[in-house]
Amino acid sequence: MPQTLAPGVLYVSREFETAHHLCACGCGHKVRTPLSPAEWQVFETPQGVTMHPSIGSWQVPCKSHYLIQEGEVVWAGRWSDSQIAAGRARDQRKLHAYVKSRNAKLPSWWRKLLQWVGIGS
């Protein structure tokens, strides 16, 4: 990823499974989204890039919430603190289930090693 991000550009690294961009509100905050079936996904279409699910900048003062659909920013509703907490909990459950399903496909000695270091379950 470049050190300096240009406004309105989504930088995607499939190799490192991550995407970066500047917050759509213009605050200048760098937004990093991990790419995986359990987190964000990027789809390329003739109309432009789509990213799913929505992006919520909950840790910064702007608390922006938006989608990137066919190369355009689509603003989503502001979330309350309880909605943010529920969304984070849902995302953690989804990520945990994804990691567990991937680990189940590993040879047993890999599963044991991951459990031993505390990342498998």
How can the largest sheet be summarized?
A: 4 strands, antiparallel
Q: Mean pLDDT across all residues, rounded?
A: 88
Q: How far from one another are the termini?
A: 32 Å
Number of spatially distinct domains:
2
C-alpha Rg (nearest Å): 17 Å
> Total strand count, please?
7
Order of helices and strands, N to C? EEEEEEEHH
- Order of the strands making up the biggest sheet: 4-5-6-7
Give the helix/strand class.
alpha+beta
- Which percent range fits the helix content? 25-40%
Tell me, briefly, the overall form.
Answer: globular
Annotation keywords:
single chain, 121 residues, alpha+beta, four-stranded antiparallel beta sheet, three-stranded antiparallel beta sheet, 2 helices, 7 strands, globular
Structure commentary:
- This protein has about 120 residues and is α+β, with helices and mostly antiparallel strands.
- It folds into two domains: about 1-75, no CATH class; about 80-120.
- It is built from two helices and seven strands; from the N terminus they run βββββββαα.
- The strands form two sheets. Strands 4-5-6-7 form a four-stranded antiparallel sheet, with no helix packed on it.
- A hairpin with a 4-residue loop joins strand 1 and strand 2.
- The model has no long low-confidence stretch (mean pLDDT about 90).
